[in-house]
Every structure is written in C-alpha cells, then in structure tokens.
Amino acid sequence: MHHLLSHTMVAAVFLAGTFAAAQQPSSPGVRALLLVPGGPVTTLFPLSGEVVGHEVQIGARGLSESFKPSARQFSLAVRDAKQESGYRPVANVLLPSQGSEFIILLEPTGATYKVHVVNGRESRFGADSVLFFNAAEITLAATLGTTKVLIKPRVAVFAKAPQRTEKSFYQVTFYQPDDGRPRPFTNTRWPHRDGSRCYVFFYRNQTSGRLTYQAVDEVLAPVAATE
C-alpha cells in the first residue's frame, strides 16, 4: 500500500507539472522597426532580468527578424562596458498578456526609445492596409481614395485601402493644417497591396523643417487554405 500511494503521488505531481507547463503561455514572437528617417540599423539585445537574448538587428527600412523574449516584460539594451552587466537598457517593453505576435515601433527620445506596441494580428491591419505613425507635433490628415483619416501625433492609426476598381492603384493625399485649413503636402498614387501591408512614418526634415514621410512594406505570410 505504501508503494502504491508513493507511485500515485509521484504520478499526480508529474501530471500537475505537465498541466501547469501546458498552461504557460508560449513566448510571443516580436519584430521591431525604427522610426528614424533614412536607413540606419542598430544592434539591440533583449534583456529579461539577468537573461540576455541574442542580438537583434533593428532598422528603419524594414522589420527586424522575429525574436522571442523570455518574458512579456523586457528591455532592449546596447552593449556598455561601463555597466556591471555589460549592457545598458535603452527601451522598456511590456507586451499585452494576450497575443502571440507583436510589432514594436521604436521612437527615439534622446539616448533611449519610446516603445509603441502593435498586435501583429491586428484585424484592422491586414493585406492592403496602412499603419500611420505621426512623429510631428501637429495633427495630420490623409485621404485614401475617398476615405478620410485623421492622424494624431504618436498614436498608431490604421486605415484600409479603398475598394479596388479596374485600376491597380489609388490616389493618396496627405494634409497639414495651415491657418485653420488643411493644406496638401503630398499627393501621390499607391498600388493595391494584395500580399503586404504598409507602415507610414511622418516626420519633419531636420534641415528644411518640412513635413515628409517614410513608408515600409511588410510582406505577409500567405493564409493556409482550409479544407
């Protein structure tokens, strides 16, 4: 009887541990994009407590490779020999408790970055959609075809391309306020993006002070067909 109870307890503990492990949410996949004019690339390291992850190359011309931090709350750090750990955090990241894929937008604020988290599976950000991020100090506006979009500073704004017609492109105009009225500063045509989505980052040119933008396309993985 004693041996039977022992084996039963061991089995119960094993099953409980297995169940708890199954309940643990898997580490989410994260990709990052620098909100910086031009095409700089920086090397950062995911840092969770004393655990340092593999280096990640993060640039402004495209999203980084996906990486999996060891926790949903972590830092991104640079190498720094002056620090005891050898690393200095430059961005603090807190991912939502739900979700398996995230995009983090890194906005420079001096020697550090402000982090803006976007759900990688955001329903409003599918194929042929746009994410606007306005780093200027004023509210901007856009028209995508006949759709009007208000773009407030430092808030992720999602928009969908207009319904496709016989043409493969649509008209896009960006506006800035001028004496209480909207004034166009860009008027262009964009193609419909059947297999990708677009990040648009507005900023002021440091030399001229004029508003401009940078656009980055992200190719989306094809959706598996269901039986």
Descriptors:
five-stranded antiparallel β-sheet; 49% strand; single chain; 227 residues; mainly beta; 2 domains; four-stranded mixed β-sheet
Structure, described:
There is one protein chain. By secondary structure, this protein is mainly beta. The protein has 2 domains: 29-119; 129-219, no CATH class. The chain has 1 helix and 16 strands. The chain has one helix at residues 2-23; strands spanning 29-34, 41-48, 51-52, 56-59, 73-79, 87-94, 101-109, 112-119, 129-134, 140-144, 147-151, 157-160, 169-178, 181-191, 196-204, 211-219. Strand 15 and strand 16 form a beta hairpin. The longest helix has 22 residues, at 2-23.
**Low-confidence spans:** 4-24
Strand percent estimate: over 45%
User: Number of helical runs?
Assistant: 1
Task: Please indicate the count of domains.
Answer: 2
Taking all Cα atoms into account, the compactness measure Rg is 23 Å
Shape: globular
Task: Offer a concise description of the structure.
This protein has about 230 residues and is mainly beta. It folds into 2 domains: about 90 residues; about 90 residues, no CATH class.
Show the helix and strand layout:
Elements: H1 2-23, E1 29-34, E2 41-48, E3 51-52, E4 56-59, E5 73-79, E6 87-94, E7 101-109, E8 112-119, E9 129-134, E10 140-144, E11 147-151, E12 157-160, E13 169-178, E14 181-191, E15 196-204, E16 211-219
Parallel strand pairs: 1-7, 9-15
Antiparallel strand pairs: 2-3, 2-4, 2-5, 5-6, 7-8, 9-12, 10-11, 10-13, 13-14, 15-16
